[in-house]
Amino acid sequence: MADEPSKRKRGGGRAGNARRTTSKLPEQMPWRIPVNVDKPTEPLDEDGVHAIHKGAMRILSEIGIEFLNPDACEILKGAGCKVDGTNVRMDEDFVMEMLGHAPAEFTITPRNPNRAIPMGGKHILFGNVSSPPNMWDLKRGKRTGDFEGYKEFIKLTQFFNCIHFAGGYPVEPIDIHARERHLDCLFEKLTLTDKVVHAYSLGKERVEDVMEMVRIAGGMTREEFDAKPHMYTNINSVSPLKHDFPMLEGAMIHARRNQPVIVTPFTLAGAMAPVTMSGAVTLSLAEGLAAIVLLQVINPGAPCAIGTFTSNVDMKTGAPAFGTPEYMRATQMTGQMGRFYGLPIRSSGVCAANVPDGQAMWETSNSLWAAVQSGTNVVYHAAGWLEGGLIASPEKFVMDCDVIQQIQRYMEPATYATTPEDIAVEAIREVGPNGHYFGCQHTQDRYEDAFYSPLISDWSNYEAWELNGGVWTAERAHEMYKGIIEEFEAPPLDIAIRDELADFVARRKAEGGVPTDF
Amino acid sequence: MADEPSKRKRGGGRAGNARRTTSKLPEQMPWRIPVNVDKPTEPLDEDGVHAIHKGAMRILSEIGIEFLNPDACEILKGAGCKVDGTNVRMDEDFVMEMLGHAPAEFTITPRNPNRAIPMGGKHILFGNVSSPPNMWDLKRGKRTGDFEGYKEFIKLTQFFNCIHFAGGYPVEPIDIHARERHLDCLFEKLTLTDKVVHAYSLGKERVEDVMEMVRIAGGMTREEFDAKPHMYTNINSVSPLKHDFPMLEGAMIHARRNQPVIVTPFTLAGAMAPVTMSGAVTLSLAEGLAAIVLLQVINPGAPCAIGTFTSNVDMKTGAPAFGTPEYMRATQMTGQMGRFYGLPIRSSGVCAANVPDGQAMWETSNSLWAAVQSGTNVVYHAAGWLEGGLIASPEKFVMDCDVIQQIQRYMEPATYATTPEDIAVEAIREVGPNGHYFGCQHTQDRYEDAFYSPLISDWSNYEAWELNGGVWTAERAHEMYKGIIEEFEAPPLDIAIRDELADFVARRKAEGGVPTDF
């Protein structure tokens, strides 16, 4: 992947010299596709993997999954499944045969081919928070999501090189009617970013509108679009044991046109899943695999990934909890099972905290490190998430990006290289017992890139920090967020393509958008 | 290890019924010795381990370590090392032979044998922050450490079951003269806690005073004390390449009396160590192993551990940074090398942040998870550390204990158990696609202990949180800290032993304490 020139290095444009001297844009790491070289943390032994697999297979063959979509039932019946109303049962041999068609890795290429993302293998990708109805910032508190807020988060998504894809809407713009929300949102996504985008699987029309817009943005024919992945969707089951109509419909359209589908059941242990973590993981896998089997029947080899969103509730209140020890183990177990089935793995960056404080960061750190430990390939909600996903916060977005950058630096082989020059016996000899290393040639040759340089961490001592205003992390993040929005420049886009996108949106709005029941 | 009855369950005493109904004491996890079952994260391949080992051996044999203690030099000369003034060189065969004497695991037993801690193997132990000159809290800001503050932190150390030992002074009580500070501090430590305590190796007199006090507190004869570990010390080298007089003196006294010595060089890459992380680790190991070799010569089989305190500086300002990606890799590499040498491993919970905010918690989470990943046996500074160790904070102490408890819960096999009852196919069948799991028998049988219950995390939704005052984590931690101090009760101690300790302190003070040059 080519490095993205940072905004600062870009000459001319709207940001002239005068402006650049007072730039509030942070230095950041270049765009890269991190490779997770660590051996995954695997709590399950061979028997444990077998027990979860057999449990999932028993659910699929004995209990069955409800497919609330007649087409899906028809297709599965045709493939030999036992279909009784909406209940579909499938046996292990069939499931394993169908899963055998799913690729272990595939690449999604957005309108800017330099932003292509390989999904699977040792790669780990990070995406923005998706789908909160509300937003919160330090100055305005909690507010209902709107289009202005949406655009700000899309700008943050584009600005940070450590964010690899633009997932769902980082906040729901409630001020745009649902019949045309996807049109306005995708127009902004496809013009303000050049990263991989996503379609909500909320029925045929929305999915096909998004596909058409992604096709236009990439300057592709329909055949070129259908030939390989250019976007993706994520569907959730309705746990326990159900897949609903529009999600299945959207997923099937994606599969038919070779666009990836991530299937992520949302199983809260003790609520819509067993109170035991391996039980919740088993249910989640059964639901997820059932949908992937359907997609493989439709188009053998269709790109799919298995997601985990297994956490637990607070048993005193029923409130969902995130980034807990149980969440971490569920993520690691799902990672093991994903490798067992040969599927790319999705997990998330999550917390239950309501504001970007200490709790928010230990819960988020727990979930992000669990993603790393589990061998996750795609980390959803990695930046900006608060209140169990009900709030998107720009400060949290910036803070999370500092953590994500650290994870990316952590994965660089330079941090643990052991060439003779790294071991540095000659430098140790040269400096001896009375010198220091600041001035020696070994340091001078390396100091510029030797260490991670943070976005928002303040490493000054207390007195310097206090003289500088005594600013806590969330407030520093607020300043950085405002600066990024102020100086944001959209990535290049051919004006003809932009016009074609605008025309498409205008036409579809004139046609009334998509049908809604409200 | 027996569970410690929680303060709440204790009848009578100073905290009567009326008081208990308004108790501010949190529910917490019982005392336990966590077992770290995860396979360690090992960035080094076999060649990497070999390269660091050979580098350390070349430093020891070709460059040598300065032992600024004539007794130490004499002893090493007698053992066949090449001694030139204070410079001591030793060859690989000798080093490996001596390290072969050091035990891979040993147990330290304090005055309460139920608080004994096994050091080594798969065990991981957590201790309080040690040695900051300053303290900070949310209401009073930054202040110089004093004896009142010291006692508060000792109470927190005793209160939290997840803290296994009372390390160094959690804050330096600057208001007590150095000639008698250790006497007052150890009296409080040995009466306010019943956990393993530590002696600073700041010369013979202090070490022997502490040993005598630990002996008295345990009601032991001198022979009983010397027979096995009852306390420990931690020494630092003066990097690069030096061990100073008083640290070596204290360490040698410990080794002669079978009390454990943790040797922890403080090598900041780019300052007192090479700018490359494996180089800084290699230097650290050479320094650490040299001291352990000395102690094995003095008393083959003396209990020792190898510590790591390798981090990096901010190359723009020279400021130390903690909990960075480079710090994590250095910790993991040292863990691998500790296992290579068959020694228990010490690392730390650290951050550069000045206040207990988001940055503090992501840096601390990075360092605590690195401790877990590295197979660390002893985590120093695990609770209460701010500003690179220059500040102790009670709010941070409480917040860190929530993270440490989560790590301990994470290590419980229940979080990833896969018995048929865990996989729960029958419960999944019973609940079916339209039920929920709150009410089913499988949940009812397990919900009380199913999930981690936090100390200070607030899992309520935004509106409930706001109605409850909209309190951020640090402020919630402040309230909890005040409640713990208010309701603190010291563990039982025989009055005769308490008197004997007080008499010893009075006598030693009357003798003038220990000599100081100020």
What does the model show?
Chains A, B: One of its GO terms (molecular function) is methyltransferase activity. Chains A, B: This is Methyltransferase. The structure is a homodimer of 518-residue chains. The first copy, chain A, has 518 residues and is of the alpha/beta class. Chain A has a domain at 83-92 and 95-411: Trimethylamine methyltransferase-like (TIM Barrel, Alpha-Beta Barrel). Chain A is 43% helix and 13% strand. The first copy, chain A, is built from 19 helices and 20 strands. In chain A, the strands form 5 sheets. The first copy, chain A, has a 7-stranded parallel beta sheet with strand order 6-18-17-14-12-10-9. In chain A, strands 2-3-1-11 form a 4-stranded mixed beta sheet. Chain A has a 4-stranded mixed beta sheet with strand order 8-7-20-19, covered by helices on one side. In chain A, a hairpin with a 2-residue loop joins β2 (82-84) and β3 (87-89). In chain A, α6 packs antiparallel against α19. The longest helix of chain A is centred in the middle third of the chain and has 22 residues, at 277-298. The first copy, chain A, is globular and about 80 Å long. At the A-B interface, α2, α10, β16, α11 and α12 of A face α2, α10, β16, α11 and α12 of B.
